[in-house]
Amino acid sequence: MLLKNMERMSSTLENLWDIKTEVGSGPLSDTILSPVDRAEMVLVPEGPFTMGISEDELVQIYMLDGQVNAIFATEVPSRTVDLEGYYIDRYPVTNFQYKNFLDATGHREPALFKEPLWGQPMQPVVFVGWDDARAYARWAGKSLPTEPQWEKAGRGTDARLWAWGREFYPDKCNCRDYDLKKTSEIGIFHEGLSPYGCYDMCGNVWEMCEGQWQEEYLPMRGGCFLGSATFVRVTCRWTPEDPKDGAHWLGFRCVKTIPK
Hints:
Blueprint (H helix, E strand, L loop, with lengths): L1 H13 L4 H5 L7 E3 L6 E5 L2 E5 L3 H11 L13 E5 L2 E4 L5 H11 L24 H10 L7 H9 L50 E3 L11 E2 L15 E2 L11 E2 L3 E3 L3
């Protein structure tokens, strides 16, 4: 057992890769292919963006939701955040990619991983928690996004509320109004792209981030297939009841920072 663990640790260390080696010394490419998990990643350039919402926007969201929900108040205030550049996965991590990780590392298998409803190769992997997602990210030579990294990738620099703009359209994402009632395959909502070309930043699955929500809770972003218009906004924040084993609506994507 010790030998197998050492072999797996060695394999993980071999998966560490240098972003400068991948992109070279010239201008940064808009997209790269992650060398370990073969995920397509898109560039989010360095610079400031607007994070969170204003008090006026909060009132508008209450009106859209039809009630005063204290969860939305955690998005206030609206503020400027300056980030270094990074690459982020264009899509959430899929069951196909996660199986490659399981085969390479012997990591525990998610619940219902082989069930047809949730386990199709191109559906986002679900029933995973933060420790699982972090282990995958380490294996892939990447990390989980921070909340600012995730939010900028989802909304760009014009303070939009959904990945595509400031008006809600239920056919642009897998949400409650779309009425699929389960996760969809990645990459099918072409009209719902974020400014940098990310899919499924609104709906499909909530996505794990690093950081802190209320008290000591871990944050998740983006809403899921069960979410109403107000819950699939790119500024919406929440946390799951079970951060260890996740849920059928919780997934993740990874980032790779660009060193100065």
